[in-house]
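Hi P.,

Sorry for the delay on this. The queue was packed all week, but I finally got your sequence through. Input first:
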Amino acid sequence: MNNPARTLIIINPASARARRAWPKIKGALADASINFDAHETTHAGDATEKTRAALRDGYNVIAVVGGDGTLSEAASGFFEFHRDGNTASSHHPSPINRDAALAILPAGTGDDFARGLAGKREALGKWLENFIAYLRHDDVSAAREIDVIHGWVEHGERDFICLNVATIGLGAEVAARVASQGGVMRRLPGEVRFVAAACGALAAWRERTVRVTVDEHEVIEGQTNLLAVANGIYAGGGMMFAPGARNDDGLIDLLWSHDLTRATILRELPRIRRGEHLANERVRLVRARHVRIETEKQEDALLVEADGNVRGHTPAEFRVMPGAIQVVGK
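Then the structure:
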């Protein structure tokens, strides 16, 4: 970062952890004589709108105090989407400011993207130290370029940016249930909420026949329990969905599971937490730059979520954008 930082901090007040963390963050920034503006989100998509407007107005650092969903919304705001066709292949998101950076101050339920960057769940204080060092030019290496995934769904949000992991089918149903949890459930650890939601979604699930086109030539067809498109390692509050995924290799990790009974899926949950599920012969891993997913029957369209936010239904496409965004973190 060569120019003085003009910083906007976006806070998700719906997150209890974010509400508790914000006074500490604000105090540390004041002690370090850091100038910033702040905005509390008020509705879904607000972080995207505010980020996009801020970058157009000359801000060059956007920090997020919240979880994966708010962080993902802010990341989408770094890009303009150009709709010149009806697939992700014909859309070319362009950055508003290539020199701008997205700073992570994790204060969500799972904080899976931050966990993947650091290799473990780090205390907020460590992230805050790095953030302040970056803003004061003490440690410009705190920022690095990473890949993002450009996602597109025919029925729903249409275009979006996925920072971490998108799931299609059963995984998306689980994410939708986690998002709708309230009361006591919202105060439980992320992994507990994930397992509870998984049990409920699994009881109502049935396999669908899916066609997946990889890099526009390889076609995989068959029934599936779960499809995951990964840029990062963790999802679902610390579940190691894609243990070999890297967010700087220019590739998507596509996970496909099939012919797993409900009992087998429940047995696999602890193994997913340790990243051992890839040893199951009914779980397949493919690395690609572009993936298209569609169901055999339109009435079997699958739910799609990315970074914990439900995006719509298949058909869906995902295309990697190498080195598309700078993040400030670990």
